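Q: What does the predicted 3D structure of Carboxypeptidase A4-like look like?
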Amino acid sequence: MSLPQTPYKYSLTQPLYDWHPWNMKWILFFGALIGSGICDRETFSGHQVFRINVRNGDEISKLNRLVNSDNLKLNLWKSPPALGHPTDVLVPSVSLQEVKSFLEDHDLEYSVAVEDLQTILDAEKQEMQHNVHQELSSNCFNYGAYHTLEAIHKEMDNIVKYYPRLVSTVTIGHSFENRSMYVLKFSTGEGRQRPALWLNAGIHAREWVSPATAIWTARKIACDYGKDAIITSTLKKMDIFVLPVANPDGYVYTHTHNRLWRKTRSVNPGSTCIGTDPNRNWNSSFGGVGSIADPCSEVYHGPYPHSEVEVKSVADFIKKHGNFKCFIDLHSFSQMVLYPYGYTATKAQDADELDMVARNTAKALAMLSGTQYRVGSIFSITYAASGSTVDWAYDNGIKYAFSFELRDTGDYGFALPASQIIPTAQETWLGLKTIIEHVRDNI
């Protein structure tokens, strides 16, 4: 199949790509939006991220007591306490002295990983403002920058525009606030229902590098078809679906109100707290360990499985399709390649093969710049988590189910600098191709 040549000045090692004048309307709107500021945007001045190490079970218990204290308003950034691995906790400025006193009084080892979160977020905002002006003057979409949902959706349309014989868009549903669940489909099957791979991103709203990596990956798939042997042979045999933003309402909210928002934006009857953790809402050991029944919790599982329309839309589409062979969910941060299960220590039936694929994936990820990824089941190397995407996929017959935790390991956490988007995407691509090739040869 011959594809039209893109007029883009195209190189995925560089951040900028030509963008056409009909996209200027949204750029002007976005520039005005971030330039004027949002009056009710939550700020994090003086908030610090503590990295806490625990050496025994008694220290784990003490740290759990601290983290679960309602009055301190702590925000767990990375992993519940576990021996051998640090826990990152965001501490509000008003709680700093109390938390430090607790840690010192109980002889808990800690360091300050982030001195002032707002300083990092201010730099991120300034970079986005600079990017808007750069795109306005150059008519370019910058793959090395963070973007709004509208910008990502428009770039998805651009990909379809320049690769119409390979790529199409599918709207699989709408969010709670009626935003499109917009998916790119890569296929050479001319409408036939073929084996397929699903790439999910942005299910947790604050993990911005996940959608950024997904849209970069979508462009890479389109450009490499006919040039890269793995992608070309795979697309001759199966389809690839990419959902860059699986939680659109939450993602928009991180741009307009609270940069650290994680959940959906659905209303919880009887509670003033908004949203559900969409990665605890899947019908796989729903409501079990690692999820909470309190709507105010960041890991609230929702009132019932697939209560979140965003989750239901993906699940219904995948089940109706009936021939998905692989499900990959992109998250950040911690640098891990994970596979089922999250809700039990019991090994999955295909654990040995999944572990082998995951280890090969981690090796591929490290080839570009030496970035090290840990490998294992969700339960074994992170924490217990019920109702997750990959467990649901695996329990519903999708054998090759993996979750990536992208860069970094905590220096920036959810506020990874935009300068790391392309390096993250490039190394992730090598890992994704490792999985894609194995799936292609084993379906």
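A (community wiki): The structure tokens above were generated from the sequence. The CA atoms of residues 66 and 102 lie 8 Å apart. The two ends are 24 Å apart (CA to CA).
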